[in-house]
Amino acid sequence: MDKKNWSETDVCEKRISPAIASAGWNLIAQVLRKYTLRAGRVMVRGNTAFRDKNSILRADYVLFHKPNVPLAVVEAKDPHHAVGAGMLRAIQYAELLGVPFSFASSGEGFVFRDTTLSDGVLERHFTHTEFPSSDELCADLRQRLAERGAVQARLAEALVETACFSSGPF
C-alpha cells in the first residue's frame, strides 16, 4: 500500500506505535491511544441530553511514566500533512494534561517540543529511531528542575522523585 493513501490510523499503527515501542515504552501499560481529555459539551433538547461529539477532545497518544503520571502527548496526522502539522493541537493537549513534552508526526519522523528547555532548544525534529524513552524524558525533566532556584528545585525534585524515579510497576 502506498504511503500517500495511508490514513491517520495507518500512520499510528505502522509508524508511531512501532517507534514508541522500540524506544522501550510498554504499549499496554504506558501508552494510551485516543485518550479523552474533555468529554464534550452536554446538549439538551427537550427531555433528552447528549454529548456533542464535535466538542470531544482526544489525544492520539498519551505516554505515561507510571500509572496516572503522564509525561507526553503525541498527535498524529495523515501523510498529506507536514510532520509538525499536529504540533499546535499537541501543545494544547499537553497544557490540558500539565505535561512538558509534546510530539507531532505524519509518519515521516517527529517534531518534539520540550517546554522544560533542558537542552536549550524548544523544538527539534528527529527520526523514528530517535524517539526518547520514558527514562530519557524523566532525566531531561530532572536536569531542568535542578537548574532552577533552591526552594523551587526542592519542591520540584520531590515531585520528580515520586513520579519518575521511585520504584513501581514499570
Give structural notes.
The chain has 170 residues and is an alpha+beta fold. It has 4 helices and 8 strands, in the order αβββββαβββαα. α3 (134-146) runs antiparallel to α4 (150-165). The longest helix is centred in the C-terminal third of the chain and has 16 residues, at 150-165. The chain is globular.
Order of helices and strands: HEEEEEHEEEHH
Uncertain spans: none
Class per helix and strand makeup: alpha+beta
The proportion of residues forming helix, as a percent range, comes to: 25-40%
Average pLDDT rating: 85
The end-to-end distance, rounded to whole angstroms, is 36 Å
Oligomer: single chain
State the total count of DSSP E strands: 8
Q: What keyword list fits this structure?
A:
170 residues; 6-stranded mixed sheet; alpha+beta; globular; 4 helices; two-stranded antiparallel sheet
In short:
32% of the residues lie in helices and 28% in strands. The chain is an alpha+beta fold.
Provide the fold topology.
Layout: H1 8-22, E1 31-38, E2 42-45, E3 48-51, E4 57-66, E5 69-76, H2 87-97, E6 101-105, E7 110-114, E8 123-126, H3 134-146, H4 150-165
Parallel strand pairs: 5-6
Antiparallel strand pairs: 1-4, 2-3, 4-5, 6-7, 7-8
